């Protein structure tokens, strides 16, 4: 069951006039929602009628599209940061350098943080590097909190934004792996201790492919452009409008210093040092050290 631009209410994705969930739906302009109350009601319907899934959210100020040679060729781009194009011609060389940088970052993380969870699972280390914006990884930031997602979409007094509702199998623990859906989800609120403030304040989760994409050969460059794009998990894309009026209905975006409590987060200080070291060491200009949002 999905929300589609041509239907005011939730509709079966197999209906003749409705776009199928996933990549087809991502090509639509989005289901317009102009009030906070309406969004809450529609999300209630979405989660109720898709109860076999865990619905996770991603909020964005824009609907970034998949591009080729500077032109949009498909729907929404929900690629992990390490796979996002910068327009370079030598795509393979760019990816090789990015994966090499990720390996160096991961090694530094293991040296700095003694938490046992960090040393137990590589995807947990990637999740922390991604969530703290240290380096691009094969993971995508999402959240279980609608408040956090809306705050990312509508912060800074924006009047419009987007909420992506993504369907994943029900979570089973701190790292949930689904062989059937070929996905895995890291719940940082279950992995990180309470002094790591950012993931707890944002209700942060990271999603990735299973098996992991850990080198250039396993990326979408080898499998076609639809590979590794988490738009394939899209249940609904909501286009939010007239959002400055939502304060009258009770919605107030979470302040930036709460979403990013860097001044009070001891993990941020340690991880920032890693990023600064990498900036000093990496000679090439296209390193994705800040492409991790």
| Strand runs, count | 10
Q: Biggest sheet, strands in spatial order?
A: 1-10-6-2
The Cα radius of gyration reads: 19 Å
Helix/strand class: alpha+beta
Mean pLDDT equals: 88
| Distance between the ends | 29 Å
- Taken as a percent bin, the fraction of beta residues is 15-25%
Low-pLDDT sequence parts: 289-293
Which bin fits the share of residues in helices? Answer: 25-40%
Describe it for me?
This protein has 293 residues and is α+β, with helices and mostly antiparallel strands. The protein has one domain. It is built from eleven helices and ten strands. The strands form three sheets. It has a four-stranded mixed β-sheet. Strands 5-9-8-7 form a four-stranded antiparallel β-sheet. A two-stranded antiparallel sheet has the order 3-4. Strand 7 and strand 8 form a beta hairpin. Helix 3 packs across helix 5 (122-131) and helix 3 (91-112) crosses helix 11 (266-281). The longest helix has 22 residues, at 91-112. The two termini are 29 Å apart.
Brief synopsis:
The protein is of the alpha+beta class and 293 residues long. Helix content is 33%, strand content 19%. It has helices at 23-26, 36-49, 91-112, 116-120, 122-131, 146-154, 188-191, 197-202, 220-223, 256-259, 266-281, and strands at 31-33, 53-60, 65-68, 71-76, 140-143, 161-169, 175-178, 183-187, 204-209, 234-240.
